[in-house]
Fold this protein.
Amino acid sequence: MSFLDGLIKDPKYQDTDPRKPEEVSDPDLIISPDTRRENRIPPGQTRTKKWPVLDAHGAPPVDLATWQFEVDGLVERPLTFSLDEFMQLPPVKVYSDFHCVTRWSRLDNVWTGVSTSEIAKLAGVKPESKFVLALAYDYGWTTNVPIEYFLKEDSLFAFLHDGAPIPPEHGGPVRLIIPQLYAWKSAKWVKGVRFLAADQPGFWEEGGYHMRGVPWGPGDGERFRWS
Amino acid sequence: MNEKYAELITGFPLFNGFTVNGTKRILDAGEVKDCAPGDVLLKEGDSADFALLVLTGTLEVFVERNGQDLILTEAQPGTILGELALICGIPRSASVRAKEPSTVLEWSDETLRTLLLRDRSLAHRIFRQALRTLVEKEQSLIDELAKGQGAVNR
């Protein structure tokens, strides 16, 4: 690719069909179960080959030198990580699809990061913890996730997308990825998680968006609380 | 003061499913204004740089023709006013005044655009309400024309 092509072409544009999970030749890869569906596009969604940018406030300033990730709430051991410490945790790789509530889906993504269950194990999550509130660097933005989805095998705190650092507009340096829920639950610019006994609506959920957000029906998926 | 209205407007169809924190954020993005009967809030022909959401009271939408006020409709709580002129970049098509002591939320041009761009669900509801109002107006115009046509044909 020439220098000019790099400027004109979107490097994240997908000009081939999505791979099937069995075509992704990496034995260490965790395969998101929804990628094994015959039809990988949930109801009411359309495949995009681009990687659109959508968020509530735009990318916040995040200083990598002072970046911190905090784990608190119903845990035995509240934790704080610097970016260096976070990156030294054992990495996982996940092959998954990405479904935005605004009706586009980007298939065939490989995320590298720290498994959510690794964080839960290190912190010692108490049994009464049933929900997780993810907190982000963008002006107090939060989102709530049922703990069983937070702890799915394919959920992770990602710092690489398709092998490259996640750019700021897509939530880097670290973003949550929960492939089995609509992507607004995959908090960009994540700065910590809080384990809770009772569900507590996050930013979009306070605006009527669904408390759980499963994209696969019945009907049109769990988009809003009023639908 | 916004806490007082945050609870109230969770009952508006526009904010169906919102929590009090959610509607408080909507209120905090704009400016709540009290108005006395007769206060003119929007003026026909003016350029549009804000929209209104009626929080309490009743507003009259009117135009002035041949020195007389022609009342077009009354706007109740939950109604958005002046958003079409803002979105379309055209002058106000009618004037609005308070019929009784009322409260409105004023959204600047930038605030409304941000709401529409960021919150797809709210944008959908705002556009649906605006377009329904337009279609109803068109329907009533057609009815009037049909009546007039009937009179001519007789």
Summary: The CA atoms of residues 108 and 140 of chain A lie 31 Å apart.
